Amino acid sequence: xxxxxxxxxxxxxxxxxxxxxxxxxxxxxxxxxxxxxxxxxxxxxxxxxxxxxxxxxxxxxxxxxxxxxxxxxxxxxxxxxxxxxxxxxxxxxxxxxxxxxxxxxxxxxxxxxxxxxxxxxxxxxxxxxxxxxxxxxxxxxxxxxxxxxxxxxxxxxxxxxxxxxxxxxxxxxxxxxxxxxxxxxxxxxxxxxxxxxxxxxxxxxxxxxxxxxxxxxxxxxxxxxxxxxxxxxxxxxxxxxxxxxxxxxxxxxxxxxxxxxxxxxxxxxxxxxxxxxxxxxxxxxxxxxxxxxxxxxxxxxxxxxxxxxxxxxxxxxxxxxxxxxxxxxxxxxxx
Length: 335
Known about the structure:
The structure is a single chain. Strands 1, 2, 3, 4, 5, 6, 7, 8 and 9 form a 9-stranded mixed sheet that branches. This protein is an alpha/beta fold. It is globular, with a radius of gyration of 21 Å. Strand 2 (about 50-60), helix 3 and strand 3 (about 80-85) form a beta-alpha-beta unit. The protein has 13 helices and 9 strands. Helix 6 (about 165-175) runs parallel beside helix 11, helix 11 (about 270-290) runs antiparallel to helix 12 (about 295-315) and helix 11 (about 270-290) packs parallel to helix 13.
């Protein structure tokens, strides 16, 4: 009887410790005086207690830093880092350096954009999904919004899916459940290690980080997804992903080739085929920008690359990836 009670106590203790690991939420902020307060407020209302909000002021020229310092003075779980402007990758890396220097590699990291907001159960939902001892990453559903219109929704029953490492990579390229952006995900610090964002990328940095992270997970690791819509993504004309310069978009082409080399060297033909299908849809957008900028050399380069991978795109039975990416392109063309 005593042995049984001891085992129960150990199980409950393990669950309590794992379910109360510290969660760091990283927010890069640049000229975000109109939205960052709303973002932080939603994080301060989380129903998960062991939380620290790390906001990086990336050389803002407005009153963003002033607003952040006020939050830090009034909330001990809000930390502000002030640095010269260097871009979102640089800002995230500074926060990761701080976290990894303090953390004993047994916590979690999440990324939130300064113009978005989250439901009160955002963090607790992601942490609950991570209770599987082999879980390496979790993700939740989200809502697209054209403007900030905040009202907390009721928590609903959700669908929970679990993927192995290779299937998770497929899902990223399918853009179906896991998606490419980082802001609806939770990462384990023990698997982040020395992984950082590529500062040379101004477009596509999320995909590069995500694939490298998944690649670094143990073979037995799993990835969990909940359809619970906890994250509100505010999509506006001024969003970084919609206004990235033509030069930055060309820079991202090299990133896709690097991703292909990683997949070819380490994964199956199926993974490469999914990656090619996703890249084909992205290149449709690049082709448009090259033509609009009258860049004949790049136009030919993109067209030839599309011809090379077109076969894999057409062989992919699930056309979902095309319609998501195509819809994104159309949105950018009309806004």
